[in-house]
Write a structure and sequence with these properties.
One of its GO terms (molecular function) is catalytic activity. With 234 residues, this protein is an alpha/beta fold. The protein is built from nine helices and eight strands.
């Protein structure tokens, strides 16, 4: 099975390097991506939008045969949901890593501080304590050293969706910074945050308790959780 891995904000393809070995060992082909504007700190980010990130993933998918599994971390969840909307018949499963689908008209995060066309990685005190669980001083230093500013147009751009068949794409939500039981409570309560997730017809939940960056804090466990979901899709 081809597996396309979409990183969250401030990260490139290398952020998946400790997650993919388990997938490769099981015979799957991984495609960790570096999205437009995330090639380097000096890359051009002006004019790059959420639509561009979705299109970049669609281009990779269109170059592969058969159905694929999409994995999206954090803001990457909005991207893979957009891809499922664009190619609902090509996606075997969407795997949301501490993330979820972003509905029509939603934005990923327009509250982050910006510097021109850039959204730099904020200081650690700009995050909730739950985000930073298990992120040691060493991991924080490594993360900050590798962090690349996110394009402002991706963080602020509105999701545009067109095909209700996206709700037929099975989904796995790997819940990290808060338990999946809280997600289901929000769904039952009709919370707007989970409105799009509630519309997906086949959703499974996997709990992986840690902070918001399990690819750094629990990469082996994350790899195994993704693998289990991929094998159910296969």
């Amino acid at each position: 099975m081809d597996i396309i891995l979409v990183p969250g904000f401030w990260l490139d393809a290398s952020s998946w390097e400790k997650v993919t070995p388990a997938l490769k060992a099981a015979g799957h082909t991984t495609h960790p991506l570096t999205l437009p504007g995330l090639e380097s700190v000096g890359a051009r980010r002006g004019g790059i939008t959420l639509k561009d990130h979705i299109a970049a993933v669609v281009d990779v998918l269109d170059g592969l045969d058969g159905k694929v599994v999409l994995v999206g971390h954090s803001g990457g969840g909005a991207v893979i949901h957009g891809v499922a909307d664009a190619r609902p018949d090509r996606v075997a499963r969407n795997i949301y890593v501490d993330s979820g689908p972003l509905g029509e008209g939603g934005v990923i995060n327009d509250g982050l501080p910006t510097e021109g066309d850039d959204v730099p990685l904020p200081p650690w005190d700009g995050f909730d304590d739950a985000d930073l669980v298990d992120l040691t001083d060493e991991l924080r230093a490594s993360f900050r050293a590798r962090a690349i500013p996110e394009p402002r147009g991706v963080a602020h751009g509105r999701q545009r969706l067109h095909d209700v068949r996206r709700y037929d794409v099975p989904a796995t939500v790997i819940a990290c910074q808060f338990p999946s039981s809280l997600l289901t409570e929000w769904i039952d309560a009709g919370h707007p945050f989970t409105a799009e997730l509630a519309r997906i017809r086949d959703v499974e939940y996997v709990d992986l308790p840690t902070g918001h960056w399990p690819q750094f804090t629990k990469p082996v466990e994350l790899g195994q959780a993704i693998l289990a979901a991929v094998e159910r899709a296969a």
